[in-house]
Design brief:
This protein is an alpha+beta fold and 607 residues long. The protein is built from 26 helices and 17 strands. The strands form three sheets. Strands 2-3-1-9-8-10 form a six-stranded antiparallel β-sheet. The radius of gyration is 24 Å and the shape is globular.
């Protein structure tokens, strides 16, 4: 709901204008006011800035950075504290008075009252920095699931942070491509852990906080626990379903709190349908729902979404993307993301959000996390099957199978010789085999080391919750919605719900051959099975068709020898092999590889 940035400068060379430039670079994230503080001290200068998108208490009382009544604490905050009303009531009982109706003031009072123990109290999506003048420290934190972004740069004389890379890049730092991160991008289409495409700029770890001593620059980094409630759970299906349903309802309704208009992205799948159904049942007015359609019937979920919307009686709109829209969004990608975006689903999502932004909607409820929480991907089943089969095969038969395979031998070798289930899944989901990346980058690249002795479906869910969900899906949703000035809230990601599902036995996630078994049981309490029961399509572009037609001129432009020669990261012969193979025989594997290369080239030209 905001863009935040700030710094600590021990050389005292960073100007107030540097801070303002970083704030202006994030202005698309706001639109309802902005502010900053800039302080000079004997040993350091410090600054905080905020570009506000007001969804709770939209009056000027909520303008940030916000300073406590005592003057000791100033906060710049991006996100929403969903239980702020309950926390406000609790704090009032302690004798604390409030001058605003905002969750920002509640958050700063929670920090004053409980310090870094506040995470045990709050249910929210957040990234924030608090200048604590009393303790002479800067305190920063990012939420449990990694919903809200935060990036930082640090050396011995300077620390800077911002909601997006473009904010950090406004400070006087050296820009250099991180080739180690590039390997991982080519592998999986996103950046792992806390790495970014820029050397020296890091992705703030989710569920972590920083404490930086203002005088010395020393810092402490810690992981926090964020369990606002604890539950005991039985192995009874009805009881499990009831408890999940209760927390799911609470999660959705809490994220529906705002003083502005709210809409829901409705895809036609179980996740978004469940969110819409719970909301519509619990409010009198018609819910605003939106969906995107494709002319390609194999990808088009608009008819299914329309049928669900009619059944729920929502106020529904659908939009169709055409070739001109698709190329226009492609050209915007480097501006939206500041880094290569390996998920081609960003194209339809950006178009849909651009249209919703015209409808006077300031908050969108999404349903990211449903597949990663409830086991919705067919690759989970495939990985389990492949791992079991691979364990049964002796090595000589594995080698024969690899030798007989006509395509993707290196990928098959990775899968057959993986020593745990998660490694099989990671390889199965990857774009490039490690051997192929080695040839492309002209350097030795090893398969990512995945240490996981728990060969269960929950190990796969945890892997995606730690990697794919925050570093691809949530990042994609944040950048796109905030580019168009809309606050995205992920309605399924209540921490208590996530923690509860970690306690549920494996057998309930995929049962009787049904993926997402538990969630489907809940959804069918609202929507008939006949409206929902169809093959999963996902939210992606017709990538083979578009890369062969409307995006082909971009492949020719950005993957030309002249463009590739600008940096020489890629072996030109390997790029041309992939491109020519795709032109001769278009296929999804090569199309996705070319998408990764195209996105990197477009990013490199821009940044």
């Amino acid at each position: 709901m905001c863009g935040i940035t700030g710094f600590i400068d021990y050389q005292q060379s960073i100007s107030e204008q540097n801070l303002l430039n970083a704030s202006i670079a994030l202005r698309h994230r706001g639109g309802n006011g902005y502010g900053h503080i800039y302080e000079t001290h004997e040993r350091f200068n410090v600054g905080l800035a905020n570009e506000r998108l007001a969804t709770i208490d939209p009056t000027n009382n909520g303008i940030q950075p916000f300073t406590s009544a005592c003057g000791n604490y100033t906060i710049t905050f991006n996100g929403t504290i969903y239980n702020y009303l309950e926390l406000r009531a609790t704090l009032i009982k302690y004798g604390i008075t409030f001058s605003t109706l905002s969750d920002t003031e509640v958050l700063i009072e929670c920090y004053k009252k409980w310090g870094h123990q506040l995470f045990e109290k709050i249910d929210g999506a957040f990234a924030f920095a608090i200048l604590d003048r009393k303790q002479k420290q800067l305190f920063l934190a990012r939420d449990t699931m990694g919903v809200k972004p935060l990036y930082f740069y640090k050396d011995k004389n300077f620390f800077a942070f911002a909601s997006e890379l473009k904010g950090v890049l406004c400070y006087p730092i050296v820009k250099k491509t991180n080739t180690n991160a590039l390997e991982k991008y080519l592998r999986n289409g996103y950046f792992y852990g806390n790495e970014t495409i820029f050397e020296g700029i890091w992705n703030f770890k989710k569920q972590h906080y920083f404490i930086i001593d203002l005088n010395s620059g020393n810092f402490l980094e810690n992981r926090f626990e964020n369990t606002t409630s604890r539950y005991e759970i039985s192995d009874n299906e009805a009881e499990i379903t009831e408890k999940i349903h209760e927390l799911l309802t609470e999660s959705v309704l809490k994220r529906n709190i705002a003083d502005v208009n709210i809409g829901v992205m409705l895809s036609g799948g179980y996740d978004s349908a469940t969110v819409a159904a719970i909301l519509q049942k619990n409010q009198a007015k018609k819910l605003r729902t939106f969906t995107l359609g494709f002319k390609d019937k194999t990808l088009n979920e608009a008819p299914a979404a329309n049928a669900i919307a009619k059944y729920l009686n929502t106020n529904h709109s659908e939009f169709y993307i055409d070739n001109a829209d698709a190329t226009d969004i492609l050209e915007k990608m480097p501006d939206i993301f500041d880094e290569p975006m390996g998920d081609s689903g960003a194209i339809p999502l950006a178009y849909l959000v651009s249209q919703i932004a015209k409808e006077d909607i300031s908050v969108l409820l999404g349903a990211e996390g449903g597949d990663e929480l409830f086991a919705g991907y067919t690759n989970y089943e495939k990985a389990i099957w492949l791992y079991k089969k691979a364990k049964q095969l002796p090595n000589f038969l594995k080698k024969i199978a690899i030798g007989l395979s006509k395509n993707r031998k290196s990928k098959l070798q990775e899968i057959l010789f993986s020593d745990n289930l998660t490694a099989v899944y990671e390889s199965l989901a990857s774009f490039y085999a490690a051997e192929d990346i080695s040839r492309l980058l002209n350097k030795e690249v090893k398969i990512p080391l995945i240490v996981n002795s728990n060969d269960s479906i929950k190990s796969l869910l945890n892997f995606d919750q730690e990697n794919y969900l925050p570093n691809d899906l949530l990042l994609k949703s944040d950048r796109i919605t905030m580019h168009y000035g809309i606050d995205n809230r992920d309605a399924l990601l209540k921490t208590d719900l996530v923690n509860l599902l970690k306690m549920v036995d494996d057998k309930w996630f995929i049962k009787d051959g049904k993926l997402k078994y538990l969630l489907k049981n809940i959804t069918h309490q609202y929507i008939p099975k006949k409206l929902m029961d169809r093959p999963k399509k996902g939210f992606s572009i017709p990538i083979v068709e578009w890369m062969s037609t409307i995006y082909k001129p971009y492949l020719e432009q950005y993957l030309s020898p002249e463009q590739l020669d600008k940096h020489r990261f890629f072996d030109i012969v390997e790029v041309f092999k992939t491109k020519n193979r795709f032109y001769i025989s278009p296929n999804g594997s090569d199309a996705r590889k070319l998408w990764l290369l195209l996105q990197f080239q477009m990013w490199y030209n821009k940044h």
